[in-house]
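Quick one: C-alpha cells for this chain, please?
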Amino acid sequence: MFRSRVLLLIVIAWSALAIAQQPADQDWSAPYEAALKSEFTLTQLTPDGLSVATPGTSVILEQDGFVLWAQVRKRWFIQTNTYSRGAINPGQSPEVLTRWEQMGQARSFRAGETLWLTDITFDRNGKGVTLQFLSEPYHGVRYVGKLKFPFAKESKPTPSQLLSTIVEVLQPRETPVKAEGSASVANNGGDAPQGEFRLLDRPAMDLLESSSVGAHLELLWMRQDPSLFEKDKTALQKFIEINNCGYAPNEPDLRTAVRRALSDEFQSASILDLYKSKAPVVLNLVSDKLIVRMRGYPTGGGRGNNFLLGRYDMTAKAFPFVDGNGTTVPSVSLSYAFLNPFGNCGNLFNVHYKIVFPPVVFNQLRMDEDAARAYVEGLAGGAQRDVIVTLEVQILPGAPKVETPLRPQESIEQMGMSEGTPTFDPRPTVTFSAKVTKATATSAPTPPYETQGRFLSVLYP
C-alpha cells in the first residue's frame, strides 16, 4: 500500500508539472483576445487607479445588479460578479450588499449606466474571461468592479459566441448619428468634431445627474415648467449648452462652439428648431429624485447648529442631538434646504435653488450598543461627534415658484452660520415643492482616506 501511495504521488506531481509547463494562455486565449480587442479598447488609468488617463471604450450596462466597489484608494482585491444564464450574480447576499451600500463602500449599478473597460484577463485553465471596469464619479467617488463570463464545462464558446454573450449585458457606446436639419447631433457625446453637437441620452443623463447638481436642477426647472422657454428667451440656448457641456472625461466642453454657431445667421435657426423639437424627449429622461447632504440646520434668529451628537444613552440605545455647548436639543426639524448648483453648466440662470417639504422631525440617532461603541472608538482623539444628514428627496409635479430678491437672513440660517450683517442678494430663488422619502446619518468624512463618511443610522421614516 505504501508503494501505491508513492506511485500515486509521483503521478500527481508529474501531471501538475506537465500542466504548469503548458502555455495555457497562448494555447486558447489568443483568438478570444483578438476578438475582444477588435470591439473594445482598454481605458488606461492613472498610476493610483483612481482616474482615467487615456479613455478607451465605454460600455452601457444592459441589466441591473452589477455591483462595483468604492475606489477611494487602489484596491488589491475586487469582488467578482458573474454573468451566467442571462443574469448577473454579484456573489454576495442581498443583506450583505445592502450593508456595504449603506456604508458607502459599494454601489449596485443599473441598466443604462456607463462604465470604462480597463482590463481583460483569461483564466489559465480555460474556464472563462473576466472584464474589469471603472465608473464615472458618483458624488466624488468612482467605483471599480469585475464581471466574469464563465465557460460551460462541456466546451468553450467560439470567439463570436463569447462576444454575443458579452453584448447581452454590455453594449459599446454608439457612434455619433446625424439628426435631421443642418445641425449635426451626437447622441452619445465623445470627441465630436467642430460643428457636431450632442443630445443627452440615458447614459449621458446619468453622468450629468451624478456630477452636476446645477445642470440637473436647470433641466428639472425646464421640465416642470415648459412655459420657461417662452418666458425666458435665453432658456433654449441654455438647454443647448447643457447638452454640450461634457460630463465624461473624454467629452470636451462645446459651449463656445455652440455660442459661435448660434451667432451665425445661417445656422442658428436650424439649431434652435432641432433642439426645441428634441427638448421633450431629453427632459423626459430627467430624474425627479435628488440627494441633499446637510451639515447643519437653522434654529431661528439667523443662527444654526451643526448636527452634533451627545453621549450615548444606554437605556434609549441612541445618541441625543446637542448644540455647540453640549446641551441636548429637544428635536430637530427640517422643512427646507438650499441647494448648491455645482458642476458643469451648474448655474447658467444665475439663481438660488431651494426645496421645501413637509417637516422631517427627529430628536435622537438610534444605534445598537456595538455599533455605537465602534463609532465612538473610531473617532480621532478629541474629534467632535458631528454627522452629515442625507435626505433622499423626490420633486413633486408642478412649476417651481420664482421669488426675488432672496431673503439673506434665510440663507444665513440654512448654512448654519452665526448671525452677521446680511448682504443684499438680488438673484431670484427658484423653489421646488418636494417630499423626503428617507433621511440617514453618516459620520463626517475623515481625510485623507475617506471621501464619504460611514453609514450610522436611518433617521426617517
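The chain has a mean pLDDT of 78.
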